[in-house]
Each structure stands twice: as structure tokens, then as C-alpha cells.
């Protein structure tokens, strides 16, 4: 996760391998809305977003993109984009409202019609089983800090695969367990909002165990199913000398704490003790379950992290101290662009990450970029156009990096842009727009942005037009490459 690959290619066009899977990604709580509909139970995100002060502007996912009621039209829109895959998540509390006990048939029916709608349009489903919406009743019993939640998750995985597994597709057990444990249990910025190292360390192990138990259950229920897990990964960049140890600890705590168990069956020794699950929680056989072979690893990449020695004296405004590591800070280098959310844009980080991860995964395990994208200050002009050139540039840079990784031997089999729509961006609410399709949340009107036409053109050509200027946009303001009518 710390290698460097700075070469730029001069080829006139970056052609992707045949069958490269082009998709977009979403998640249930962020798009579905219909929070009270058809027997859905409450999730931790319902509780959290309805707690004053937790989400910007008091936003909730009650309505979101109303995808639950508009999925037919939205699938038509997906069809016009011509992308081969759609990543969505199944809402656990819609399928099993209390997390245990009775199954909600109306929830199952929704996902059945969704996957059939996708297949009818020749779009491959990429099904995430857990994208953060834990049934509230399980949280009331300790949530991910309670081992029992992992067992309940495996049951739920089996219910879903029995209901819709016959459609094939790709199956992702858990999305970004690191974010769940850290933001949800250690620092409290996400649901369920705990700030407790002990709970977070327990959640770390139980999320991994949930993956392992579900993996075994899915394979038993449906031999031949394609299953993996999605991890958020952050290349750690060291600026200047002296922060080597801090960089390798940061790598262990942000990347290897989930990657190593899945790939190697052990926790990274470099992580500090209070982040690691205590031995008493790790039962015999757990690590074997967690490290059972997967068909693919999903990588979510947004930004690298830059660590350095603090300048002695008073902390500088651009330096953020790293808790528990005196003298070490993170920074956002001034020369690098940032998205409207303040996330540093560095496409080379994607290249480095893919190369580093591929060097460790087992032969035969493919990689997918299951999320990558940027939030921008998008707005619709009076003519109803969204000129999001910033997003086109973002896509362009990251797709070129993905292409270089493939050229250099990485078994990258697909790329999912986050996200199809503007949606509920967790504690940021609706303020941060990541979509290829603009959503006017007051009317639910959808407007495909310029980036949607650009991305559809790349997918159709299975190639990225390469410009010598390094920009995706011509001087005329027109994106390079084929623009598809979406
Ligand atoms: C990831 C999440 C996804 C979305 C993007 C911007 O961490 O998996 O739901 O919020 O960030």
C-alpha cells in the first residue's frame, strides 16, 4: 500500500480487456427511502439520522431518492446508460425487520423484482448484503460488539441467497467494515454513534466473522456463487523522513486490520493494541472462516492519506494531529486538488493500491473497484443541464490509473462509479452530490449529468480516449470521447 508507480502512458487510447465490467454503485439506505413501507423494520441509520445533531441539516433517509417506489423508471435510466452492472445493497431490516425471527415477504418481493428488472435489461446485479443498515433491534442487543450479530447476519445472508441467488451476479458480504467499526463504534460519527475503543475492537472482529460465516453459508446454499468482500483502502503516503513507523502503523490500522485477516488469516501486528480484538473474542476456527478463499476482492478508493512529522512548535492550521501518536500529523498537500468534500484527489493512489493489493491476493482472486467517485457542487442550469466537468476529469484520471494497473498485470475485472444518483451521504446528508444522475430532492426529478454521457461513452467503447493535455475536456468545453445520449 505504499509502493509508487508514476509512469504515464502515451498510448492514444486506453483499451480495457474484453468483458471488463462497467457499473455504478449505490446502497439501500442512501437511495431507497420508503422507510416505513411494507413492513420494513428500523435500522441504526433511521435512529441515528433522527437524532438531532447527528446528520447535517437534520437530513434522514426517510425518502432519499425514493428508489423503492421508482425503481422501474430508474432501471430504464440505467438501461439507457448501457452499463453492464449495477451494485445495490439489500436492506437487512426490510427483509428481516427485527434481525431475527420472521422474514418480511414484501421486502423479498422488492429485491426479486429488482433483480429480475436488471436481468431483463441485461444488467448484472452486484449485491451487497451489508451496507451499514443494521436492524435497530440487533443494535439494542449490542450490535456488532455482540458476537451473536455475526450469526444473525449469516442467517440473513442465507435467506437472501435462497430468495434471489438463482439470478447469479456478484455477491459482496460486507461493505467497508473499517468504516463501520471506526466511524460507528470508535468515534461516533456514523450510526450507531458509539465512541468506545473496546466496542470498536469487538465490532472489528465480529464484522469479519460475519463475512466468514456468511461466505460459508452462501457457498453451501449455492455452490458456484461468486462472493467477495469490499474494503475501503487508503494508500498511506509519507511526506519527508522520520514518519516511517507512523506510516506503517497507519497502514496496519486503516488497511491491514481488515485486509490481512481476509487474505492471510491474521491481524496485523503493527496495529496498536487497543484497536485489535482481544484474544478472548477470537474463537477457534474464526480466522479460518474469515480467510476462506474469496472469488474477488472489492476495493473502494477515494483518497490517500499523507502522514509526516509535525513541524515543531505550535500545530499549524494545515496539520491534523494523529491521536495517540505525538509528533505525527496528517496533511492535505496544497498542490493536490480536493473535492467539494475536502477529499484529496490523487488518481495515482488507485494505481498504487491495486498493484499492492494484487501482489498479496491469491491467484485467481479478481479485483474490482467497487466504489470510486467525487462529490461536486452540481446544479442544474435553467436549461436543465448539469455541467459537471470536474467529475469527468475525476473519472478520467482514475480510469487511466485503473487501465495502467491492468497493463501492469493487476487482475482488475471491473469498475463501479459511486454513485448512480446523488443520494443520502451519511452524516453529510444530501449536501454532497456524488451522482452521475442529478436528483432534485424536492421533486424527485432526475437529470443525467454530463459525466453520465461521458462514462456511458467510455463503457460503450470499452476504452478511454487519451489526450496529450492530460485533461478530459477540450478547450471548447466538450468532453473528449464519445458522448452517449442517456
Ligand atoms: C463510502 C461508502 C458509500 C459512500 C461513499 C462516498 O465510504 O461506502 O456508501 O458514502 O463512501
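Q: What amino acid sequence fits the structure above?
A:
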Amino acid at each position: 500500500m505504499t509502493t509508487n508507480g508514476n509512469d504515464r502512458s502515451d498510448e492514444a487510447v486506453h483499451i480495457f480487456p474484453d468483458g471488463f465490467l462497467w457499473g455504478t454503485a449505490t446502497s439501500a439506505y442512501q437511495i431507497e427511502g420508503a422507510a416505513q413501507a411494507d413492513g420494513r423494520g428500523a435500522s441504526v441509520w433511521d435512529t441515528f439520522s433522527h437524532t438531532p445533531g447527528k446528520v447535517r441539516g437534520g437530513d434522514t433517509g426517510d425518502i432519499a431518492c425514493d428508489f423503492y417506489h421508482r425503481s422501474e423508471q430508474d432501471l430504464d435510466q440505467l438501461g439507457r446508460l448501457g452499463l453492464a452492472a449495477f451494485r445495490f445493497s439489500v436492506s437487512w431490516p426490510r427483509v428481516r425487520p427485527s434481525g431475527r425471527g420472521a422474514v418480511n415477504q414484501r421486502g423479498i418481493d422488492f429485491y426479486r423484482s429488482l433483480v429480475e428488472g436488471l436481468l431483463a435489461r441485461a444488467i448484472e446485479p452486484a449485491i451487497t448484503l451489508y451496507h451499514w443498515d443494521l436492524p435497530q433491534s440487533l443494535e439494542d442487543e449490542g450490535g456488532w460488539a455482540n458476537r451473536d450479530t455475526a450469526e444473525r447476519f449469516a442467517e440473513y445472508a442465507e435467506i437472501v441467497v435462497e430468495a434471489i441467488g438463482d439470478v447469479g451476479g456478484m455477491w459482496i458480504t460486507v461493505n467497508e467494515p473499517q468504516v463501520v467499526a471506526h466511524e460507528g463504534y470508535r468515534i461516533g460519527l456514523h450510526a450507531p454513534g458509539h465512541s468506545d475503543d473496546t466496542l470498536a475492537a469487538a465490532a472489528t472482529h465480529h464484522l469479519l466473522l460475519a463475512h466468514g460465516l456468511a461466505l460459508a453459508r452462501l457457498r453451501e446454499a449455492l455452490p458456484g456463487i461468486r462472493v467477495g468482500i469490499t474494503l475501503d483502502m487508503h494508500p498511506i503516503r509519507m511526506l519527508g523522513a522520520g514518519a516511517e513507523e507512523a506510516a506503517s502503523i497507519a497502514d496496519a490500522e486503516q488497511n491491514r486490520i481488515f485486509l490481512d485477516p481476509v487474505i492471510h488469516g491474521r491481524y496485523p501486528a503493527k496495529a496498536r493494541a487497543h484497536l485489535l480484538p482481544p484474544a478472548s473474542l477470537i474463537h477457534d476456527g474464526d480466522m479460518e472462516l474469515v480467510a476462506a478463499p474469496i472469488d474477488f476482492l472489492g476495493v473502494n478508493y477515494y483518497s490517500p492519506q499523507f502522514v509526516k512529522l509535525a513541524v515543531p512548535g505550535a500545530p499549524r492550521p494545515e496539520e491534523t494531529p494523529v491521536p495517540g501518536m505525538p509528533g505525527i500529523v496528517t496533511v492535505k498537500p496544497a498542490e493536490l486538488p480536493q473535492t467539494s468534500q475536502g477529499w484529496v484527489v490523487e488518481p495515482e493512489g488507485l494505481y498504487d493500491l491495486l498493484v499492492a493489493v494484487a501482489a498479496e491476493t491469491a491467484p485467481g482472486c479478481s479485483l474490482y473497484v467497487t466504489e470510486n467517485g467525487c462529490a461536486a457542487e452540481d446544479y442544474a442550469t435553467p436549461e436543465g443541464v448539469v455541467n459537471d466537468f470536474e467529475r469527468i476529469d475525476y473519472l478520467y484520471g482514475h480510469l487511466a490509473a485503473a487501465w495502467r494497473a491492468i497493463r501492469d498485470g493487476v487482475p482488475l475485472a471491473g469498475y463501479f462509479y459511486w454513485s448512480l444518483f446523488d443520494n443520502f451521504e451519511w452524516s453529510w446528508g444530501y449536501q454532497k452530490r456524488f451522482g452521475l444522475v442529478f436528483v432534485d430532492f424536492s421533486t424527485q426529478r432526475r437529470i443525467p449529468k454530463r459525466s453520465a454521457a461521458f462514462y456511458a461513452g467510455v463503457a460503450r467503447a470499452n476504452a478511454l480516449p487519451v489526450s496529450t493535455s492530460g485533461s478530459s475536456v477540450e478547450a471548447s468545453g466538450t468532453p473528449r470521447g464519445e458522448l452517449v445520449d442517456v
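Q: And what stands out in the fold?
A: The CA atoms of residues 59 and 429 lie 5 Å apart.
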